[in-house]
Amino acid sequence: MISEKIVKALSQQIMEEEHASRIYLAMASWCDANAYPGAAKFLYSHTNEEREHAEKILKYINYRGGHARLLPLPEVDNDFKDVRDVFEKAMEHEIYITKCINDLYELAIAEKDYGTQVFLQWYIEEQEEEEDLFQSILDHYNNCKGKLALFDKFVSEKK
Ligand code: OFO
Predict the structure, then answer these.
(1) For ligand 1, mutation pick of 24, 25, 48, 53 (most atoms within 8 Å of CB)
(2) How far is CA 36 from the centre of its chain?
(3) In a domain? residue 77
């Protein structure tokens, strides 16, 4: 049986993953409206991934005998300076999510919740991949030297 403390912390993470999903949806919409169809395609798909991350935690809480409840979501930014700003903010957000996952892992250790430690390992690896993914997009932005159509094509091929 999962402790209330862990349920509360994991429920907070459900909110963070849903919030990340909305952040990427707002970014996708900005890219769509500003003629970056490749970046929009990538971000629309990333929105769904974050939604799946939220659902995976929700189901885990319920599987362990808890009851996952949804929390209200914070506002998201809808406006960005340019496409670089979109991806810099996405990268910052991934670094923030990595910290949330690491804090959760520390709590699972402190609470001697071995099952949650194993469960969270998937998220630890996922965050490594996502930081690497967004960093590669930013690196490409720097390398493409203002050729934004090329940049957009590169991002459209990312998963
Ligand atoms: Fe949920 O994977 Fe990044 O944020």
Answers:
(1) 53
(2) 21
(3) no
> Number of folded domains in the chain?
1
Give the number of other CB atoms < 10 A from CB of residue 34.
14
Distance 17 CA to ligand 1 centre (A): 6
pLDDT, one tens digit per residue, over 80-92 is 999 999 999 999 9
Could you tell me the maximum CA-CA distance found in the chain, to the nearest angstrom? Answer: 54
d(CA 62, ligand 1 centre) in Å: 21
Q: Retrieve residue 121's tokens.
A: 């390992």
pTM comes to 0.96
Q: Is residue 144 part of a domain?
A: yes
pLDDT tens-digit series, residues 4-58: 999 999 999 999 999 999 999 999 999 999 999 999 999 999 999 999 999 999 9
Count other Cβ atoms within 10 Å, centred on residue 19. 20
Domain that holds residue 47: 4-72+82-156
